[in-house]
Design brief:
Spore Coat Polysaccharide Biosynthesis Protein SpsA, Chain A, 10 helices, 13% strand, transferase activity, Glycosyl transferase, transmembrane, Glyco_trans_2-like, Nucleotide-diphossugar_trans
């Protein structure tokens, strides 16, 4: 089967050559250089990859879009995505392709949670991934390694997944779109390493919150009643705490604290408005789907 390995890359001159060289054993290699200002494109070409170059950095999602469009235009049967930083082992590509060849899956995700590799993940990353995985489950209903960039898909999945995300939330977007379109998803165990030359291109905290914010907005779009219901509940809890603080002195023979009482009223109104908004948006979503 005609196979393409898509590698989105941004300033990866230290590792891109070896990743391309190892991946070439399993198919054609396309590197999407997402606006790098180092020698990523040059080294990738010398290593034997076809290179598409974005003039400016547009985000991982945009890089994958370019790669998928190329794969469709060139009639590839299977597409593998793998990170350029050396975290993944290209020699594990056959593990991801095998379920597709056997007809068991359309999209295969390389999971760090199936063979104990998660123990190698730094603790702060493990917590962040847990939050992102659970958030993805809320909107997709699937418990998978939602942020793994090591994946394989057949042409059916490639044609069905119309990505909207341009940043690192693209992995979650892919899972959600696959679920909506009836794409069969399977996980296989992979190894992962974190002793790579460039560990972080972005601050891990801000990066994690950025991805989480994108997932939360997706939850709001797909399941508005759930999101607004949770926000409404938080508002009512705050209102309850403020009401207690306002009235507790009164029952002890003192006076009502006016500031806390006003705050309780404001948060009660906000909670009601959020809940009503969730109900209205939920009805609109159902009308659009029908």
């Amino acid at each position: 089967m005609k196979t393409l390995i898509v590698i989105p890359a941004y300033n990866e001159e230290l590792t891109i050559g070896s990743v391309v060289a190892l991946a070439k054993k399993y198919g054609d290699v396309l590197v999407v250089d997402d606006g790098s200002y180092d020698r990523t494109s040059e080294i990738a070409q010398k290593a034997g990859a076809v290179v598409i170059r974005h003039k400016v950095n547009m985000g991982k999602g945009a890089a994958l879009k370019s790669g998928f469009e190329y794969a469709l235009s060139q009639d590839y049967d299977i597409v593998i995505t793998i990170d350029a930083d050396g975290q993944h082992n290209p020699d594990e590509i056959p593990l991801l392709v095998d379920p597709i060849i056997k007809g068991e899956a359309d999209l295969v995700i390389g999971s760090r949670y199936l063979n104990g590799s998660k123990e190698k993940i730094p603790l702060y990353r493990r917590f962040g991934l847990w939050v992102l995985n659970k958030s993805t489950k809320v909107v997709s209903g699937l418990e998978v390694d939602s942020q793994s960039g090591f994946r394989a898909m057949n042409r059916k999945a490639l044609e069905s997944i119309n990505l909207k995300s341009e940043d690192y939330s693209v992995e979650t977007d892919m899972v959600v779109k696959a679920k909506e379109n009836g794409i069969r998803i399977k996980e296989v165990p992979i190894s992962v390493r974190y002793d790579v030359p460039i560990k972080h291109k972005k601050n891990p905290l801000s990066h994690g919150f950025s991805v989480l914010a994108s997932i939360v907005s997706l939850i709001g779009y797909k399941r508005p009643l759930l999101l607004f219901g949770l926000l409404s509940m938080v508002s009512f809890i705050v209102a309850g705490v403020l009401a207690y603080l306002a009235l507790e002195p009164y029952y002890n023979g003192g006076h009502v604290y006016l500031t806390q009482a006003i705050g309780a009223g404001i948060f009660t109104i906000i909670g009601i408005q959020l809940f009503v908004a969730g109900l209205m948006l939920n009805v609109l979503v159902k009308m659009v789907r029908e």
